[in-house]
Design a protein that fits this description.
It is built from 24 helices and 13 strands. It is of the alpha/beta class. A 6-stranded mixed sheet has the order 4-5-13-10-11-12, sandwiched between helices. A 4-stranded parallel sheet has the order 8-7-6-9, sandwiched between helices. It binds pyridoxal-5'-phosphate (PLP). It comes from Malus domestica. Its cofactor is pyridoxal 5'-phosphate.
């Protein structure tokens, strides 16, 4: 049947709920660009065809004609417009427009009626069938949800690094040790192509720009103002597609790792002596005059990619809905993107509820937190953002404030804040349990600690903390912390390296002290001590003596054996 060819890479037999309402086209979607399409070849046999081995995964996608998105469509509409009047104003995604007539935000609105022709199980099975493959473009965690993201784009125009599909880490030790929680998870969105979750949205924006350029729209380059991660993602995706990128960066306010990324990727980098809000103002004025496409999250296309992280979380829990999702917020597009992803899953029947959302802000840049505390009905007041280690969210006048308020109201959400001390300590504690998180994720964890202490988040609540960037982008702040070298900050969990002379005795001395300090962690060993003392065999004295290192090693092992066994082994 016709519809089965839509997803022929899937081993599942997927049936639309109402197949008669669909009119799938049988002609190849890439009719003008395909050179060797064989529409008569059954898709299932093409992988074994040796006559025309695929040159690459794009060619293979063309051959399979996996794009079926022409049933689905999306348009720009004014954000949160009254549904009865929204018909009045809407734009094709192929238009270059960032704001509504009245100057408000836009939103990408999907043809939900068309998507609803398929039931929740159909979408769940479809998305699940695409995970972890190289099938273009579905190997990407974003484009595996293409029908919900940019349904009308040719797969051929997509610029992707197979972003997304990031791991959902069970923070077992952190949860148990610091929060008495069993079901705490960290969604490592920052383990990604350019090291932050901005890749999710940028693949969508740059793909659409790629399409516009092929349509000869006046787009010479793409520009953004950035606190670091957006410019890294923009320049990487533009470089992959050969599109010029221009980034406005606040001078001396971003990490070296973030600055070097756009430079290495060949972007035109303007280092401007102002803060993020100043850069944002400038780029908006500039893009109004020049053929530069604006890539900031004012641009609602990016949120379509960012929202897939929410869908992925549900998918990774086998479509069970967590109780809480905590997202660090600055310009506030992402808190809305997560809401939108969850809400679409509910509306289309993949799940039956959505999690409660928490937006976590740095206390040094907390306009949303103040707005929340004052009560949503008060007028929103931007603030002047102060320096924070969570530099990507050092934003005082968030572009997406309306989107964030909407998302939090609709999800029974909460806003929390974290001081520099709280966020750095939370980051250090998380790192000490085997993670390597960024300061923004530290903000989210600090918010979690507060909500746990207030009893709002319960010990058994399934909670997901969204980790937004890779810790390796923020090594300087970690180095400063562990060197106890931050003004006005008690670096409580600093773990500085020990300087030791290069001789055996000195090394032994520090190691013996270290092992003794760890002794308390091994209760079995403690029992051992008393038994040993009774028998006048002072095993622990071995630590004080020059014994063979392997003997010391045995003692410092986590021991759950019976004291006798250890005792005998030691002898
Ligand atoms: C962009 C970003 C955020 C915040 O996202 P907003 O949509 O601006 O609220 C958080 N953490 C990191 C690392 C980011 O790059």
């Amino acid at each position: 049947m016709a519809s089965s060819s839509l997803f022929q890479s899937s081993p599942l037999s997927l049936k639309p709920q109402n197949p008669t309402s669909l009119h799938p086209s049988t002609k190849p979607h890439f009719a003008t660009t395909i050179k060797c399409v064989s529409t008569s070849t059954p898709p299932s046999s093409s992988s074994s065809s040796s006559d025309h081995p695929p040159h690459n995964i794009r060619d293979e996608a063309r051959r399979h004609n996996t794009t079926h998105s022409h049933h689905f469509s999306a348009r720009y509409v004014p954000f949160n417009a009254d549904p009865s009047s929204s018909a009045a104003e809407s734009y094709s995604l192929d238009e270059i427009v960032y704001r509504s007539n009245s100057g408000g935000l836009l939103d990408v609105q999907h043809d939900m009626a068309a998507l609803k022709n398929y039931d929740g199980k159909y979408w769940r099975d479809l998305f699940d069938s695409r995970i972890g493959k190289t099938t273009w473009p579905y190997g990407s965690g974003v484009w595996s949800k293409k029908e919900w993201v940019l349904p009308e784009i040719d797969s051929d125009d997509i610029v992707s690094a197979f972003e997304g599909n990031s791991n959902l880490f069970w923070a077992e030790r952190y949860g148990k040790q610091f929060l008495s929680m069993n079901d705490l998870w960290v969604k490592h969105c920052g383990i990604s192509h350019t090291g932050s979750f901005k890749d999710l949205g940028m693949t969508v924006l740059v793909s659409q720009v790629n399409r516009l350029r092929k349509m000869n729209r006046p787009v010479v380059g793409v520009g953004c103002a950035s606190t670091g991660d957006t410019s890294a993602a923009l320049s990487a995706y533009c470089a992959a597609a050969g599109i010029p990128s221009i980034v406005f960066l606040p001078a001396n306010r971003i990490s070296l790792a973030q600055l070097v990324q756009p430079i290495a990727n060949g972007a035109f980098v303007l280092s401007i002596d102002t803060d993020f809000d100043g850069c944002m103002q400038l780029i908006r004025e500039v893009t109004a005059e020049l053929p530069i496409y604006l890539a900031n999250s004012l641009n609602s296309l990016r949120l379509e990619g960012q929202k897939t992280a929410a869908i992925e979380i549900l998918q990774q829990f086998d479509w069970e809905v967590p109780d809480w999702v905590i997202v660090p917020g600055g310009n506030l597009g992402n808190i809305y993107a997560f809401y939108k992803g969850f809400h679409m899953c509910k509306e289309l029947g993949l799940v039956d509820k959505i999690p409660r959302l928490v937006c976590a802000q740095a206390a040094n840049a907390n306009p949303l937190y103040l707005h929340y505390k004052a009560g949503w009905d008060q007028e929103f007041k931007p603030v002047k953002a102060n320096t924070t280690f969570a530099s990507a969210i050092q934003i005082g006048d968030p572009v997406s404030i309306d989107r964030a308020v909407y998302a939090l109201k609709k999800s029974n959400g909460i806003v929390e804040e974290a001081s520099e001390q709280e966020l750095m300590d939370a980051m250090a504690q998380a790192d000490s349990t085997g993670m390597f998180i960024c300061p923004h994720t530290g903000v989210a964890l600090a918010a979690l600690i507060k909500l746990r202490n207030q009893g709002i988040i319960g010990t058994n609540d399934r909670t997901v903390v969204v980790s937004t960037a890779h810790g390796l982008k923020f090594t300087q702040s970690k180095i400063d912390y562990h060197s106890n070298d931050i003004k006005d900050l008690a670096c409580k969990y600093a773990n500085p390296p020990m300087q030791v002379k290069a001789d055996f005795g000195s090394v032994m001395d520090v190691l013996k002290k270290y092992l003794l300090s760890k002794r308390a962690h091994y209760p079995a060993l403690q029992i051992n001590v008393s038994i040993v003392q009774e028998t006048k065999f002072l095993v622990l004295n071995a630590l004080e003596l020059d014994v063979h290192p392997s003997f010391v090693h045995q003692l410092s092992r986590p021991i759950s054996l019976s004291p006798n066994k250890v005792f005998n082994e030691s002898i």
